[in-house]
């Protein structure tokens, strides 16, 4: 096997990564649909199993890509007179990486963690007020609608993003502008949600709050 063959294989593997990412996005949307429409626990659990399988594939793929890249760099650096068996070297490095990882590592996959987070939020948004509703339906609706309001604009959010650190949501443009203004003044950004102690909001902490957006859109249609 030559350097050219490995480069070609790497290109194909990276294409596979994009297919895995797309599959994970679709699985997330399907799971959120299931919670929103029927909350069939078995079907939702099946989608989580699908996400785990994707996460495992992604981890294996990342290890193999890294093994290929490290092997090529090592051989190029050492410049041996006789080119070694690159395929065997890659396989050895791949197995070495694999042995160092625990089975739970794939659960730190970014898309899998996002799936878990959004699933939890969707269940909370759709079914979290059941107990309150039995006491007073008006209170439940009011509390739910308060979650729709951006703490910066004080208006119903259209494109909510969620802070992974403190769990609060904001209108995307509003929080990004807020962060930008503070950066220009070289100041840290405190979470604008009243009572929140998180004092260093970063753009990298923000993820689309698909669960909240779905509930807001559903409420607006009624």
Automatic annotation (TrEMBL):
Q: Which GO terms describe its biological process?
A: double-strand break repair via homologous recombination; protein sumoylation; protein ubiquitination
Q: Give the species this sequence originates from.
A: Hippolais icterina
What lineage does UniProt assign to this protein's organism?
Eukaryota, Metazoa, Chordata, Craniata, Vertebrata
Keyword hit for Nucleus: yes
Q: What is its main location?
A: nucleus
Q: Where is the SP-RING-type domain?
A: 135-221
The protein's name is E3 SUMO-protein ligase NSE2
The family this protein is said to belong to: Belongs to the NSE2 family.
SMART domains referenced in this protein's UniProt entry, alphabetically? Ubox
Task: Supply one GO CC term from the record.
Answer: nucleus
Which molecular-function annotations from GO does this UniProt entry contain? ligase activity; SUMO ligase activity; ubiquitin-protein transferase activity; zinc ion binding
* Localization of this protein: Nucleus
- Listed pathway(s): Protein modification; protein sumoylation
Give the UniProt keywords, A-Z.
Answer: Ligase, Metal-binding, Nucleus, Transferase, Ubl conjugation pathway, Zinc, Zinc-finger
